[in-house]
Structures are given as C-alpha cells and as structure tokens.
Amino acid sequence: MSAGPKPRGRVLIVDDEPDLLEGMKMLLDLEGIDVILHSSMITLPLILRDADPDVVLLDISLPALSGTAALRSGLRRLLKTDGALVLFSGRSDNELAALTQELGADGFIPKADDPMEIVRRIQIWIDRRRLKRAKDRSEGSNVTSRTALAIAR
Q: What confidence tens digit (pLDDT) does each residue in 42-56 have?
C-alpha cells in the first residue's frame, strides 16, 4: 500500500479461489479498504501476526486444514486476533448460521450474496471492530485516570 490516506479498514481474505480473491480485492480497494489475500490455513497464523486485520473472511471449505476443522481446534486462540472471524462459503444460510454458532465465529457471509452486499457487510464488521477498540481504549484511559487520582489522594 502506498503512502496516502489512511485505509478505512483492513480485511484478510482466506480463500483458494484466485478469481474470487482478485474480484473482492478490487471491490474493497475501491472502498478504501486495505486487503490482504491468503490461500492457505497452514501459514495463516504467521500472516495474522503482521496483518492485524479488522475482519478475517475465512472460506470454511479450504482443502488443506479446512476452516471448519481449524475453528474447531481453537483457531481464534491460535490466531490471537481480535478481528472479527467471519465465515465465507457457498453453503446455505442455514448451514452457515449453524456453523457460526458451533464454531464460535462472529458471523457469516454467503459467497452467493451480491458483491456490493458483501462489501457493505464487511464495512459493518470493520466499523464494529473500530468502535469496540475505541471504547476499550477509552475505558482503559478512564481506569488509568481513576488510578492516578486514587494514588494522588
């Protein structure tokens, strides 16, 4: 990414379909969202350490170490990310909703959705994470201020 305006957010898309990855990257780039593309679950923890995404859009049907298996084995703990983990699949809404709950993901987006609807939903996830981070920082500074006042007394 070149020096310029600060990106509106950062998304890591983990999928093994190159055309889908490139199409999503183009759409999200147009919205000012920084996009990182990745095609393997095997090296995902290494990528996440540097990426710090607001949203991880995870294809749960990857052939090697599927997203479903990874989430069942504690992917969120392994990945050490506070970004939203959003399942991304061609499976039915009902199946995705059940998997989201079962696997502890934050939500899901069907691949069959209109591309602009997918972008809109990703923007919502980015906004939620940014608001949560701002709130956490605010609460942290309030605790620090109260502690300093208590010590000063």
A: 777 778 878 889 999
Residue corresponding to tokens 């991304």:
88
Q: Return d(Cα 33, Cα 122) in angstroms, integer.
A: 10
Q: What distances in angstroms separate CA 50 from CA 47, 61, 133, 137, one per listed residue?
A: 6, 24, 18, 21
pTM over 0.85: no
- Give ∠ CA 70-86-127 in degrees, rounded to 5: 140
Give strand pairing partners of 107: 86
Q: Tell me, what amino acid is at 77?
A: R
List Cβ neighbours of 66 (8 Å cut-off, separation of 6 or more): 41, 60
Q: CB–CB of 26/35 below 8 Å? A: no
Closest to 89 in 3D by CA, of 123, 117, 119, 62: 62
CA-wise closest residue to 65 among 43, 80, 38: 43
Interatomic CA distance for residues 44 and 22, integer angstroms: 18
Q: What's the CA gap between 21 and 42, in Å, rounded?
A: 18
Q: How many Cα atoms sit within 13 Å of 88 on the Cβ side?
A: 25
